[in-house]
Specification:
With about 270 residues, the chain is α/β, with parallel strands linked by helices. The protein folds into two domains: about 160 residues, NAD(P)-binding Rossmann-like Domain (Rossmann fold, 3-Layer(aba) Sandwich); about 90 residues, ProC C-terminal domain-like (ProC C-terminal domain-like fold, Orthogonal Bundle), CATH 1.10.3730. It has eleven helices and eight strands. Helix 6 packs across helix 11 and helix 7 packs across helix 8. The longest helix has 22 residues. The relative contact order is 0.09. The model has no long low-confidence stretch (mean pLDDT about 95). It binds NADP nicotinamide-adenine-dinucleotide phosphate. The site of NADP nicotinamide-adenine-dinucleotide phosphate has 27 residues, from helix 1 and strand 2.
């Protein structure tokens, strides 16, 4: 990668995207120009970040150099978008702005940054350990080599899926809200173990190893979920007894409704 890259908001998710690119020498730290809001973050990054990137405070004199970069990653919180001030409105029609802001539509981005071609990206929290899922919707007029460059930005930390924008809300519901749902399931199952007399820490460890093992089994052997269920249920046995309780309590429907609800909520933010 040779282009200069601006990062508007060098927080948790932006670091998760940029750091592996720097670690793998896919981008030169001298080509990365970042903005943060507070002096505290600025000093913290200058002091503690492993790579010698260019970092400035928003609205400082130097911040205009960041806005001169042709490719920008917009990674502030959605509620901070209103504070973003583009310091020099460069009219170059090849300028690209890639937004990872949850729920902010392409239409809103184009309205807010009229001199950029815009890309809307949804990613999820496992990106912070290089295991993210990233959904991309391309705005109009983006060239193939620009798409390739943008995909490279996310490839080191996530798997990439391309979608029309109307599917990004359900992608977000499933993959960005999903980690909280899995967290709740881990917690609840661990509490089940605790109720049965296991130590909390051991119970949680067993649940997580069981989930990892089960998912690997499904992936590695191409088992269908129905085949897996048949493998572990026996007539009058323990597992069918457990599943009956869950069906009776409506867990299956609750999970479906949870995903649809998250997707509908995301649409309300547009
Ligand atoms: N967290 C998640 O699970 C997750 C997952 C996927 C996508 N996202 C999306 O990722 C985005 C960033 O989330 P995050 O968790 O990385 O947030 P974060 O850690 O709070 O980072 C936000 C960054 O933006 C900076 N900033 C704030 N106002 C600014 C301004 N006016 N000009 C320039 N920089 C400014 C902040 O600087 P200071 O530190 O100085 O305030 C900080 O560096 C959000 O839009 C979110 O929707 C989040």
């Amino acid at each position: 990668m040779t282009s200069k890259l601006a990062v508007i908001g060098f927080g948790n998710i932006a670091k998760a995207i940029i750091t592996p690119l720097l670690d793998k020498n896919l981008i030169n730290p001298k080509d990365v120009y970042c903005l943060v809001n507070t002096k505290k973050s600025l000093e913290n990054i200058r002091k503690n970040y492993d790579h010698d990137i260019n970092i400035f405070q928003a609205n400082s004199l130097e911040s205009s150099i960041v806005w001169e970069c042709k490719v920008k990653l917009l990674s502030v919180k959605p509620q901070q978008l209103k504070n973003i001030v583009e310091s020099n409105k460069n009219q170059n029609s090849r300028n690209l702005l890639v937004s990872i802001l949850a729920g902010v539509s392409l239409e809103k981005l184009v309205e807010r940054f009229p001199n950029h071609k815009c890309v809307r990206v949804v990613t999820n929290i496992p990106i912070t350990i290089g295991k993210g899922l990233t959904g991309i919707t391309w705005g109009g007029g983006i060239e193939e080599n620009q798409k390739k460059f943008i995909k490279t930005l996310f490839e080191s930390s996530s798997k990439i899926y391309e979608f029309p924008e109307d599917l990004l809300d359900i992608f977000l519901a499933l993959t960005s809200s999903g980690p909280a749902i899995i967290g709740l399931i881990v917690e609840a199952l661990s509490d089940g173990g605790l109720s049965g007399g296991l130590q909390k820490q051991l119970s949680e460890e067993l649940v997580m190893e069981m989930i990892l093992g089960t998912v690997s089994l499904i992936k590695d052997t191409n088992l269908t979920t129905a085949e897996l269920k048949n493998m572990v249920t026996s007539p009058g046995g323990t597992t069918i007894s457990a599943l009956r309780v869950l069906e009776n309590k409506g867990l299956r429907s609750a999970l479906i409704e949870a995903v649809i609800s998250a997707s509908n909520r995301s649409k309300e933010f547009h």
